[in-house]
Write a structure and sequence with these properties.
The protein is of the alpha/beta class. The chain contains 38 helices and 17 strands. A hairpin with a 4-residue loop joins β5 and β6. α32 packs antiparallel against α33, α33 packs antiparallel against α34 and α34 runs antiparallel to α35. It is elongated.
C-alpha cells in the first residue's frame, strides 16, 4: 500500500510515495489531512466542517465529489465508507507528517546551520494557504490541530535544548531557545537558558535584552535578584576551624602541628589567613609576612625580615650561639606564598623552628607548583609528626548550591564551567568586589608560563574547538611526546589544565573557560591565524577517505580554516562535507571509485533540506574571489553531480538532466574526464531505472568510442559492468557474462577491496539476472544470495531492497509462495526504510500475485 506524507509548513502539500499530488481544489487536500489525522470521521461532521454554508444535500454531493477526486489521484481503496456513515482512511496506508520529522531528528551532532535549516522549515504558520471561508467547526479543528503540533514540537525542543546545555554547545542552545520563544513566549525556561548561554559565550549585551524582555512579559525585575557575597568565613569554614583548633592547642601547651595550606591561585589561601588573624586575641604574638606574586626575594631576605620583626617585639633570645624564640614566649608565624621564598631563607627558617620547639607555630600558604626546597622542608616536619597539609580544592556543586540558593542548577553548573570552581573567579563572575584590574592581575600571575613550550601548549588549547589527547597535542606542535607530557603535568599541577576521562583515553582541557578566554585574548591575531592553520593542517593529514570516520573532523577543519582566513579552502571542505552526506547512498549499487568510500550509513532524501543547503553553498561560491579557478570549477562540477544524482534518485530526472548536461559542458571545457565519466554513468543508471535500452546503448557507446583511452582500470571495469548488463538485457547472455566476469576480476584485485564491494555485488546481481531471464531459477537465486552476502554488513541499504525482491520473484516463479512472501516482506521493509522507488511498483504487483494465489 501507499505511504502518504502530509507537509503543512511552508504551504500545504500531500505526497504519495515521495511524489507530490496536485489536487484541483484545497478541500480535497484538507479532507485527506483530516482523515490522516483522525483515521475515521463522521460524514455529517465533515460536511459541516468543509461546507458549512451549504444545505445537507449540496454538502453531501460536494463530499462525494471530493472523495471521488482523491480516489482518482491515489486509488480507489484509499478512502473507505463504513455502514455507520463514517468515512475512514484505509488502515494499510502508512501516514507520515511533519511531527515525524521533528521527532526522528538526529540532532546531537548537528551544527548550528543544520539546526537553523530545520527551525526555518517549522517557523511558518500551518494552514495559512487555505483559500476559502470556513465556519466555527473547522476553525476549532484547525486551532486544536495547531496546538497539538506546537505542543509536540515544543516538547522536542525542550529535549534538544537540554541536550545542548548538557554538552555545553551554547550556540545551538541559543538557536533552539530563540525558536522556542517564538512558539511560546510565556515559558521562562528558554529565557534562563539563553542568559546562561550568552554569559558562557561572553555576549553580555544580549543578557540585558533578555532581562528587559522577561521583565516586560513576567512583570518582575530580574536584575534585582542579586546573590549575596560568598563569605570567606563560609566557603573555607572547615579549614579555618581546623587551623584555629591547632592554634588553641599551641596556646594551651598541648601537642600541636604546623599548618601548610596548599592551593592554586585564587583558591582562598590568603582569605583563610586573614580570617585567622581577625579571630586572634592579643595573648599570642602574630608575625605575618606575605611575598608578592612575581617578586623574587634576595638571599636571606625573608628570614632576616622575620627575625627582625621577632626581635623588635622583644621575643628573641640571642644569648646562645643561635637565635631562638625566648623562653616563655609564643609566636604564631604566618607566611603567605612561602614557596616564593629564597632557598637560603627556607633552610634558616627550618632550623629556627626546630630550635624554638613548642614556642613557634608556622602557618604557611603555597601554590600547587611546589619547589624541591619547600618539599624537603615540609617533608622533614611531617616525618616528625609536626606538620599537617590542608589542600584547597576548587568549590563543587554542593558548595555553590549552599552559597547561592537562588541560582538554578543549570546556572550553578555554568558557574563551575566558567570558573572551574575557583573562588576568586566565582567572585569575579558574581561581581563581588573584584575589579577588572584585579582580575587581569590575577590571571597574569596565575597563567604565567616558565617555558615557551608551556606557553605554546596554552595558546594552542585556547584556540582549539575541541579537547585533545596528548598524542594529538604533540603531533600538532610537532614536539616529543615525553616533553609535552612533562609540561602538561606541570600545568595540571598548577590548576590551569585538567584531565578529562569521559573517553577511553585522557583528554586535556583548561580548568575553566575564563582562563581559556584570557589566554586566547592575549594572542596576537597574526599568531592566531597561524595556529588555526596549523590545527587545520593536522586534521587534514589524518583524513582517511572514510566518511564515518572523517565526518567528525570536517567541522573542525572548516572552523579552523575559516578562522585562519583560508576562505576558499574552507568552502571546499564545506562542499566536501555536503557531498559526503549525500554520497553514493542514492544508488542501488553505488559506483565506488578509488577516491570514494563505498557506502553511507544514512539515507537523507528530504528535498527541502537538500535544496536549501545546496543553494546556500552555491551562493557562497559566487562570493569567492577565485570562483573561476580550475579548482573551484571542479568543486562546482562535484556539487552539480551531487544535485543531479539526488534528484534522479527521488524521481525528478528532468531537474537532474539539466545539471548533468551542464556537467558535461563544463567538464569538456576543462578536459576533466572524471566529470564526463560520472555524468554518463548517471544517464546509464537512469536508463536502467526506466528500462530505456536505447538511451543506455547511446551513452555506453559514447564512453567506449570517445573516452576509452582515458579510463583508469577501475573506470573501465565499471564500464564493462554496465555494458555486460546491457548485453544481458538484450539476451546476449554469453557476451554479457563474459564482460561482467572480466569487470569482477578487476574489482577483486584492487588494493582497497572494501571500496569495491558494491561493484562486486552488482556483478553477482547481473549474473543472477542472466540466469533468471533464461529461467535457470536455482542458479539465479544463488547469484542474488551471493550479492546479498557482500552487501549485508549494513542492515539497511537500497541494494538489499532490490535483491530481496528478486529472491522473492524467483520463489514466486517456482510457486514456493510462503518463501516468496518472506522475501517480499523483507524487501518492502527495506524500501519503506530507505525511501527509494526503483523496483517498488513491481514488488507490489508480485505481492498481489502472492495473495491471489492463496
Amino acid at each position: 500500500m501507499k505511504t502518504l506524507e502530509v507537509r503543512l509548513y511552508g504551504g500545504t502539500r500531500i505526497l504519495a510515495d515521495g511524489k507530490e499530488i496536485e489536487f484541483p481544489f484545497m478541500k480535497a487536500a484538507l479532507l485527506l489531512i483530516i482523515l490522516s489525522d483522525k483515521k475515521s470521521y463522521s460524514r455529517k461532521k465533515l460536511q459541516l466542517m468543509l461546507w458549512h454554508d451549504k444545505n445537507e444535500q449540496k454538502a453531501d454531493r460536494n463530499l462525494r465529489n471530493t472523495i471521488y477526486v482523491i480516489k482518482q489521484k491515489l486509488g480507489g481503496d484509499v478512502i473507505l465508507t463504513e455502514k455507520n456513515s463514517k468515512i475512514r482512511l484505509n488502515e494499510n496506508i502508512s501516514v507520515l507528517n511533519d511531527l515525524d520529522i521533528i521527532n526522528s531528528l538526529e540532532y546531537k551532532d548537528m551544527c548550528k546551520d543544520d539546526l537553523q535549516d530545520i527551525y526555518s522549515y517549522f517557523s511558518d504558520e500551518i494552514f495559512e494557504d487555505l483559500n476559502f471561508e470556513y465556519g466555527i467547526s473547522l476553525d476549532d479543528y484547525i486551532r486544536n490541530f495547531k496546538n497539538i503540533y506546537n505542543e509536540n514540537i515544543y516538547r522536542k525542543l525542550i529535549e534538544i535544548s537540554q541536550h545542548f546545555m548538557h554538552v555545553m554547545n551554547y550556540e545551538n542552545v541559543i538557536i533552539t531557545c530563540e525558536f522556542m520563544i517564538k512558539l511560546n513566549e510565556y515559558d521562562e525556561k528558554p529565557y534562563k537558558n539563553l542568559i546562561t548561554a550568552y554569559n558562557s559565550l561572553g555576549i553580555f549585551s544580549k543578557i540585558a535584552e533578555i532581562d528587559k524582555k522577561m521583565s516586560d512579559i513576567f512583570g518582575y525585575d530580574t536584575s534585582t535578584d542579586k546573590i549575596a557575597h560568598i563569605g570567606n568565613e563560609y566557603y573555607r569554614d572547615d579549614q579555618i576551624f581546623y587551623t584555629l583548633s591547632e592554634i588553641t592547642k599551641f596556646n594551651q601547651g598541648e601537642k600541636y602541628r604546623h599548618i601548610g595550606i596548599k592551593g592554586a591561585s585564587g583558591s582562598g589561601k590568603t582569605e583563610i589567613l586573614n580570617s585567622i588573624k581577625l579571630q586572634q586575641n592579643n595573648d599570642t604574638k602574630i608575625i605575618d609576612y606575605s611575598i608578592s606574586n612575581g617578586y623574587t626575594p634576595c638571599k636571606y631576605e625573608v628570614f632576616n625580615y622575620i627575625i627582625n620583626k621577632i626581635r623588635n617585639n622583644l621575643l628573641l633570645d640571642s644569648s646562645s650561639l643561635y637565635d631562638i624564640v625566648a623562653n616563655g614566649q609564643k609566636v604564631i608565624l604566618i607566611i603567605d606564598n612561602l614557596d616564593l621564598s629564597d632557598v637560603e631563607s627556607i633552610e634558616e627558617l627550618f632550623n629556627f623552628i626546630i630550635r624554638s620547639e613548642n614556642r613557634i607555630l608556622l602557618i604557611a600558604t603555597y601554590s600547587m607548583d611546589l619547589d624541591n626546597k619547600l618539599t624537603y622542608f615540609l617533608n622533614s616536619l611531617s616525618t616528625e609528626g609536626l606538620f599537617t597539609e590542608i589542600k584547597l580544592g576548587n568549590l563543587n556543586f554542593n558548595d555553590l548550591k549552599k552559597a547561592y540558593a537562588n541560582l538554578s542548577d543549570e546556572q550553578i553548573n555554568n558557574l563551575i564551567i566558567q570558573s572551574g570552581g575557583n573562588p576568586f573567579l566565582i567572585n569575579y563572575l558574581m561581581n563581588n568586589g573584584v575589579t577588572k584590574e584585579m582580575y587581569n592581575a590575577f590571571m597574569s600571575v596565575n597563567l604565567s608560563c616558565k617555558t615557551q613550550t608551556s606557553l605554546r601548549i596554552l595558546h594552542l588549547l585556547s584556540i582549539m574547538k575541541n579537547r585533545v589527547d596528548i598524542n594529538t597535542l604533540s603531533d600538532i606542535l610537532n614536539m616529543n611526546v615525553d616533553k609535552v607530557v612533562q609540561e602538561v603535568s606541570q600545568l595540571i599541577n598548577r590548576g590551569i589544565l585538567i584531565e578529562n576521562t569521559e573517553q577511553d583515553y585522557v583528554e586535556i582541557e583548561f580548568c575553566n573557560n575564563l582562563q581559556k578566554e584570557y589566554i586566547c585574548s592575549s594572542i596576537k591575531n597574526i599568531e592566531k591565524q597561524y595556529i588555526h592553520k596549523k590545527i587545520a593542517d593536522y586534521y587534514e593529514s589524518i583524513l582517511c577517505d572514510n566518511y564515518s570516520i572523517d565526518n567528525k573532523y570536517y567541522t573542525i577543519i572548516i572552523y579552523h580554516l575559516t578562522m585562519a582566513k583560508y576562505m576558499d579552502k574552507a568552502f571546499i571542505y564545506k562542499c566536501k562535507q555536503f557531498n559526503k552526506i549525500y554520497n553514493i547512498s542514492h544508488e542501488f549499487f553505488p559506483i565506488a571509485l578509488d577516491e570514494e568510500y563505498s557506502y553511507s550509513v544514512n539515507f537523507n532524501i528530504d528535498e527541502n533540506m537538500f535544496k536549501n543547503k545546496y543553494e546556500e553553498l552555491m551562493e557562497e561560491m559566487d562570493n569567492l574571489k577565485n570562483k573561476y579557478s580550475e579548482t573551484m570549477l571542479k568543486v562546482k562540477i562535484n556539487m552539480l553531480f551531487c544535485y543531479a544524482r539526488f534528484y534522479k534518485s527521488i524521481g525528478k530526472f528532468d531537474e537532474a538532466q539539466e545539471k548533468l548536461n551542464e556537467i558535461l559542458r563544463l567538464s569538456e571545457s576543462l578536459d576533466y574526464f572524471i566529470g564526463i565519466f560520472q555524468a554518463h554513468l548517471q544517464f546509464i543508471q537512469y536508463s536502467i531505472n526506466i528500462n530505456d535500452l536505447k538511451m543506455m546503448k547511446s551513452h555506453l557507446k559514447t564512453l567506449n568510442n570517445d573516452y576509452k583511452d582515458m579510463m583508469s582500470e577501475v573506470q573501465y571495469a565499471i564500464y564493462l559492468r554496465f555494458k555486460g548488463y546491457y548485453d544481458v538485457l538484450e539476451h546476449n547472455f554469453k557476451s554479457g557474462i563474459q564482460k561482467v566476469e572480466e569487470a569482477q576480476e578487476i574489482f577483486k584485485k584492487q588494493h582497497k577491496l572494501y571500496k569495491m564491494k558494491f561493484n562486486i555485488a552488482a556483478c553477482s546481481f547481473v549474473k543472477g539476472e542472466a540466469k533468471f531471464l533464461q529461467n535457470e531459477f536455482d542458479d539465479a537465486f544463488e547469484y542474488y544470495m551471493d550479492a546479498i552476502s557482500i552487501c549485508h554488513d549494513k542492515e539497511i541499504h537500497p541494494s538489499l531492497a532490490l535483491l530481496f525482491s528478486r529472491l522473492g520473484l524467483v520463489r514466486l516463479k517456482q510457486q514456493s509462495f510462503d518463501e516468496a512472501k518472506y522475501y517480499f516482506e523483507k524487501s518492502l521493509k527495506q524500501y519503506n526504510t530507505v525511501g527509494f522507488s526503483w523496483g517498488k511498483e513491481q514488488l507490489y504487483s508480485h505481492i498481489d500475485k502472492i495473495y491471489k494465489s492463496k
